[in-house]
Specification:
This protein is an alpha+beta fold. It folds into three domains: 167 residues, Uridine Diphospho-n-acetylenolpyruvylglucosamine Reductase, domain 3; 81 residues, Alpha-Beta Plaits; 81 residues, Alpha-Beta Plaits. The chain is 30% helix and 25% strand. It contains 13 helices and 17 strands. A hairpin with a 4-residue loop joins strand 3 and strand 4. About 2% of the residues have low confidence.
Length: 374
């Protein structure tokens, strides 16, 4: 089912008497398998408002992400939260949609400086599990009373409602970028370097380690970037080389899309921890022979492990129970995703709130049931 209007979508959901498998472009096949009839938002397309001077854009949920990025680029603007393209990693096809980006809170390396997708979402329209059309927010950032539906819908993975339209804040593309890079640092040393750069006054917009290279990104006016890069090289990042322009952009594009793990066997985990705990966690998981990529200054770790048994779930989450953090199984066999909680199990108090929200917005339990767990 691919409705082309919000009214059609509402009718489909209201008339449904069995579970629905909600999809945008189908590029982010993450979560427990859902047994239900396919319902796609791909037919809800088009940018309905774009005001470059006001840095705002409104688009229907099924609008392809590439179309939005091309439109913004024409005005020298972008989605600053840097959503990735995970098709190569997940082996999926299709075209990512803006609704899917917001529903999954897809946020890339720049999150450490500008925030996540939810921080740029000004408003949403969606259809709940009873077929009611709801809206919240608007074209300007403001406080709300009651449920903050914008925040609830961003990252809800289609379990609370099916988005039909999103309002977004956009930002200007900087004049240039450069990356300070160092080969061969251990994970622990890389985290120290990243922390030093992020703690400096030099406005770092990316801090990661990938393929054995520690990378620190700077963006802005050309003279400003050159000044900040030299200051870091003369200070906390001595021994780092510099690359700029397209070569720098390619590094961060590969990180954003997890290209080092694409085409390689194994399960892939997304682990959030306190940055200083990351290297020790990777060492404690030595029995899994993990391949690790550090992002967000070490606060986000992408792990590739053997896709066998529980895909390392027990060991990873047991270690996290001692240090704090959470782990999401991003890629694994269908068997593993069906038997292991894909999203990190919530504490009892939070789980109760989650159940209450789902009962409020989807009392029949028909929207992506089980995708995020019980």
């Amino acid at each position: 089912m691919t409705p082309t209007t919000e009214a059609e979508l509402a009718e489909v959901i209201a008339a449904a008497n069995a579970p629905l498998r909600i999809r945008g472009g189908g590029t982010r096949d993450i979560g427990a398998p859902v047994d239900g009839a396919d319902l796609s938002t791909r037919g809800l397309t088009g940018v309905t408002l774009y005001e470059p001077g006001a840095l705002t854009l409104v688009a229907r949920a099924g609008t392809p992400l590439t179309e939005i990025e091309e439109l913004l680029a024409g005005e020298g603007q972008r989605l600053a939260f840097e959503p990735g393209d995970l098709r190569a990693l997940l082996g999926t096809k299709g075209r990512s949609t803006i609704g899917g980006v917001i529903a999954t809170n897809a946020s890339g390396p720049r999150r450490i400086q500008v925030g996540a997708a939810r921080d740029f979402c000004l408003g949403v329209r969606f259809v709940d599990g009873q077929g009611q059309v709801l809206k919240n927010g608007g074209r300007v950032m403001k406080n709300v009373t009651g449920y903050d539906l914008v925040k609830l819908m961003t990252g809800s993975w289609g379990t609370l409602g099916v988005m039909t339209e999103v309002s977004l804040k956009v930002l200007a593309i900087p004049e240039t970028e450069a990356t300070l890079i160092c080969d061969g640092q251990s994970g622990a040393t890389a985290v120290v370097s990243m922390a030093a750069a992020l703690g400096s006054p030099f406005d770092v917009t990316g801090a990661a380690q990938m393929n054995g290279q520690t990378m620190i990104r700077l963006e802005g006016l050309e003279q400003s970037v050159a000044y900040r890069a030299k200051a870091l090289q003369d200070g906390v990042l001595q021994g780092f080389d510099i690359i700029d322009g397209d070569a720098s952009a390619a590094l961060w594009s590969d990180l954003r899309d997890l290209k080092p793990f694409a085409g390689k066997d194994g399960a892939v985990w997304r682990v959030s921890v306190k940055p200083s705990d990351g290297p020790a966690l990777v060492r404690e998981l030595a029995a899994l022979s993990p391949d690790a990529i550090y992002d967000w200054g070490g606060g986000l770790i992408w792990l590739r492990v053997a896709d066998e048994g529980d895909a390392g779930a027990h060991m990873i989450r047991n270690d996290l129970s001692h240090i704090g953090g959470h782990a999401t199984l991003v890629r694994a066999s269908a068997e593993a995703r069906a038997s292991v909680p894909v999203f990190h199990p919530e504490p009892a108090s939070i789980a109760a709130l989650t159940r209450g929200l789902r009962a409020k917005f989807d009392p029949r339990g028909i929207l992506n049931p089980g995708l995020m767990g019980a």
